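Our preliminary data section would be incomplete without showing what the modeling component actually yields. Below, a chain of 210 amino acids is followed by its predicted structure, encoded as tokens that our downstream tools consume directly.
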Amino acid sequence: MLINLSTTIALSCPACGRLEKEKVNIFELPVGELKQLSCSCGAEKAALLRKENSQVQINYFCLHCDKAHKEIFSAQDFWHSNYLQPLSCRDTGLNPGFFGPPALVNDEIKKEKQDLELMAAELGFDDFKNPEIMLQALDIIHDIAAEGALSCECGSDDINIELFSDKIQLICNNCGSRLNIEAVDKEDLKNLRQLNSVQLHSIQGKPNNF
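Predicted structure:
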């Protein structure tokens, strides 16, 4: 009888933001030895440790808060889960990654890619200096808004978005305050990912820069 204990981990890179997957076999994870997971860009993303009690500890760097997180899973949840297990960010409530059966991981990655491609098509991304960066920046802002963390200091959370070739402008529909968020390079994404919330607080009608 052949027992193949393995799982597939998908984790967004804290350096470049790329979501990549990696299959991990139990024979690659000896008890007490760290297994490093790296992005194709060269940045370290996570480290796995199988403990004496068969639990698996995952230390991972989070692109949402720019901190390291640690989670411990039972052998059953890590090797035998029939559903996706999220790797969460405690500070933001967002999920930089997940693991589970390869078919489910592949389906989730495909779904996320299709959602981003659909958004890009609807927005006409050919007009932007760096369409990929702009798309990722919009996705981050969307996640922040979904957590109820996008607002204006006037008390309103009715925020509109206007897109330019090199930036995203957030506009308060209540008082007219504006905030410009640069979206051209990886440094812009890094700065944006470090935010747990975004608040507009410029003088009415006069844009402020993030």
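Residues 182 and 188 are 6 Å apart (CA to CA). The first helix runs from residue 75 to 80. Preliminary results of this kind motivate Aim 1 of the renewal.
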